[in-house]
Structure formats: structure tokens, C-alpha cells
Amino acid sequence: MTGVQKLENSKRNKIQAYDLAIHDWYQFILGYPPHLVRHYIEKFGVSKYDIVFDPFCGTGTTPVEALKNGISSYGLEANPIATFASKVKTYTDYDPDLLLEYLAYIRRSMESSYSNYGIVEPQADLFSYKARFCTIKVKDIINLTESQLQVIPKGFISPKPLLKVLIIKEIIRSIENKDARDFFLLALAKFIVKEAGNVRFGPEVGRTKPKSDIESIHSFTTIAEIMINDVQKTKLTGQAQIMQGDARSLDKYMTRELVRGINCVITSPPYPNEKDYTRSTRLESVLLDFIRNKRELRGIKENLLRSNSRNVFVSDNDSRYISSFSSITSIAQEVENRRLALNKTSGFERHYNKIILHYFGGLYRHLKTLRPYLARNCKLAYVVGDQMSFFRVLIPTAELLGEIAESLGYRIKEIELWRTRAATATKMQINENVLILEKK
Ligand SMILES: C[S@@+](CC[C@H](N)C(=O)[O-])C[C@H]1O[C@@H](n2cnc3c(N)ncnc32)[C@H](O)[C@@H]1O
After folding, report:
1. Ligand 1 pocket, 32 CB below 6 A?
2. Phi and psi (nearest 5°) for 48?
3. On the CB side of 394, how many CA atoms lie within 13 Å of its CA?
4. pTM assigned to the model
5. Per-residue model confidence as pLDDT tens digits over 236-277
6. Which residue has a Cα nearest atom 25 of ligand 1?
7. Which of 181, 220, 227, 313 has the fewest CB atoms within 10 Å of its CB?
8. What does R_g of the chain's alpha carbons equal in angstroms?
9. Phi and psi dihedrals of 2, rounded to 5?
């Protein structure tokens, strides 16, 4: 029995303290833990000469864990801030001394800029040490535009914390070294989520009680110091290349090296569960300029697998790829029948059956476009959850995905139970599985 299976169910999806380094710089609520990646690296016998690929890499758990194990990897992700996080986390050439110097510069600049704004911080330690610094003035602050404000859910951040975030952002932007700049921008993303914003992550993303003000100098510095400490103590070996794009059309992004053959895929596509993945990263995406208006938000959603009613569009047609799979079409039909029986008429509910069809159609496209890049005997692990979000009709995701995979030249090796969890609506225990495939 490997380490991962010894963990009890409640801990299986939790990152363990010894795994926090780098992974914890910025994480997705819906990500999987590093020990799961390690488990499949071991189980598949992946060696340092192999290439691991994660086509839905989120905030980079697979590529980071591969590098921690001396294995090169590739990642693809459609959400720009998650792609950015994966890139920053897999950069292997940071100079910790330089980062510490920049951190002193940021801290001193925060103190100086705050005093310029008349902001008094509870724990500010004004000018107590030597460092170069800049003072951000009112004219330097690039305030949020109306179009940006429109895409931030109401109440996600209060005015004083927002001003502090904007000041820190301008200070970081004045750093000339791009890798260091990106490093601190990721620290700021974490600071926005953990400290500045009024955002709560439950099963759904929601609002906390508004924080009218926050301490920021000490808390931002602490986040950055922990990250620098991780750089000092963590050895990453190999290379990672992270791309932004849509895993349903890999041909647009694949590079020559990848064409040589991927030996292992460890990944987790979104689940068909009514969760809007862009909402859980929305605040920091807008504040750090990854999304500037509704049009850009829509562009991102169009590149995602259809998994919820907020990212289904009139022109969608992924459903046509699975029209001959009666196991899938019959589930979609059952959802629609239940909607009619329950007399549910909202626009969202009318989409539920289509989501299921487009979702599996999108995964069909993904597996089809992936296959030519795989080395012989490539092993693949797809972590997917069964779902009951649409009028409580059970969607056995791993089984259905396996059926699609078999039709495209993959062999199902096994479906491993990863863990069980309570369905949001019914509290019934449903399975989260790992579908293990092999290229035929
Ligand atoms: C379950 S999360 C993966 C989390 C990841 N394993 C981690 O630990 O951070 C699924 C990811 O797939 C991304 N995604 C959804 N549709 C995509 C697509 N068509 N192409 C690439 N990425 C996509 C989402 O933005 C999300 O980051």
C-alpha cells in the first residue's frame, strides 16, 4: 500500500504540511493534493527521463510535484491567473538573495507610500532599515475602470483594502526584473485572497463580513518571506513548460518537444457540477489585470470545458461528438425530464441537460486531440467526481469518460476510488474516482 492510500478518507484531499512548499503559494479550492500526483508517479514508474503532462493544470500541482521529483513536465490551463501561478511556481532559477532585496524595497516603499496617503498601519515600522524605495502617489495609482468593477462580484473587497492592494501592485510593477516582479505579483494574488478580499470558499464562492481595513505590511511581507524560504529550501529539477490554452484543441499549442512523446498524464478536468471556476479566481484576476472587462471574461469562459450553466453559449456544439453514446444522452434526457416534471423554468435550469452533453463532448475532443502526442504505453490518470448537481440525477463521470476513451484508442486499466464526499444537495456520499487509461 502506498502512502496515499494509507491516508483516511477525510485527509485524502488535503494537502499535508510537509507538501506545502511552493504548492501553497497560490492554490485552487478545487485542486488535488500533491501526494496524489506522487502516488501516480510511483504507480506508473515514471522516471526522470519521462515527460508528465497535465492538460488541465490549474495552479500547477502536477508540474510542481513532477519537478520536486526530478521529472520534466508540461502544463496547459485555460484560466490566465491559474496559468500565471503555474508558471511562477515552476520557475527554477530564482535568486533568493535578490528576492530578499526586492522584498525590503517593497516593504520600505509600502511604508513611504502609506505615509504619503496618510494611511496608518497598526504594525508599520517606518524607515527602520535601509532599502531603496519608491513612493506611490495618487497620480501613479491606476484605478479600476468601470468595466473592471462590473466583473468583480459585489462586496468582494472594501475600499481601504483595495487602495492598499493597488499601492502594492504599483510598487511591484516598478521592479525591473520580470521574474522577481511575477514572483511578488503571485504573493499579492495570495494576499488578495487570504487577507484583503471579503471572499469565502465553501462549496460555493461567497462573501465574508466586509473587512473595512486590514493590516498589510506585515501580512504581505510574511507571505513573501515564506515563499522566499521555500525557494531556498526546495530543490526543483527538470524543466516545466506551462501554456495557456484550451485542452480541447491541443494542436494549437503543442511544441516539438511534446510531439516526441508524453509518457504520463496526471490531471483533473473540471467536474460537471454547476461551479463557475472563473468566479473562484475573479477578484485577484481583475485586480491583477488578467481580466479587464466582460468581453475578456467571456473569452476565458469560451475556452473552458462546459461544466456549469454560466459557461454555456448559444453557439456551443461540442455535444455533437457524443451523440452516439446512449449512456450519456440518456442521462441528459433524464435531467431534462426531471426539469419538466418539477416545472423548473429558469434559464440556468434549462441548460442543465446541454451542459452534460457539451461537457462530455468537450472531453471527447480533448482525448482525441491528445492521443497523437502520447508515447507508446503512456499511462493516464484522470481524477473525476461523480455528480448529482442536476436535479439529483447521478452522473458516473469516470465510467462515461472511460467509454469515450475506449472509443478513441485508449484502454481502461482500472477505475480507482480516490475518496467519497457528500453531495451538496442530498448529502449522499458520492465517489471521486481516478480513471486510469493506457494508450493502445
Ligand atoms: C479541477 S481544476 C484542476 C486543478 C489542478 N489539478 C490543481 O491542482 O490546481 C480544472 C482546471 O481545468 C481548467 N480548464 C477548464 N476547461 C479547460 C480547457 N478546456 N482547457 C484547459 N483548461 C481548462 C480550469 O480552469 C481549472 O483550472
Report:
1. yes
2. -70, -10
3. 8
4. 0.94
5. 999 999 999 999 999 998 876 666 789 999 999 998 888 888
6. 79
7. 313
8. 23
9. -85, 165
For ligand 1, is residue 246 a contact (CB within 6 Å)? yes
What residue segments make up the domains of the chain, in order of their start? 3-80+238-278+294-439, 96-233
Point out the ligand 1 atom lying closest to the alpha carbon of residue 248. Answer: 19
Residue 269 Cα to ligand 1 midpoint, Å, equals 5
Tell me, what amino acid is at 279? R
Q: Is 303 in the pocket of ligand 1 (CB under 6 A)?
A: yes
Q: At the fourth CATH level, which superfamily is domain 3-80+238-278+294-439?
A: Vaccinia Virus protein VP39 (3.40.50.150)
Q: What is the pLDDT of residues 11-37, one digit of tens each?
A: 677 788 889 999 999 998 778 999 999
Residue 74 Cβ inside 6 Å of ligand 1? The answer reads no
Could you tell me whether strands 205-207 and 199-201 are parallel, antiparallel, or unpaired per DSSP bridges? antiparallel
Pocket test for ligand 1, best of 36, 54, 56 (most atoms within 8 A of CB): 56
The number of C-alpha atoms within 13 Å of 100 and in the hemisphere containing its C-beta is 10
Other Cβ atoms less than 10 A from the Cβ of 139: the count is 6
Q: Give the integer Cα–Cα distance in Å for 309 and 159.
A: 31
Decide: 220 in ligand 1 pocket, CB within 6 A: no
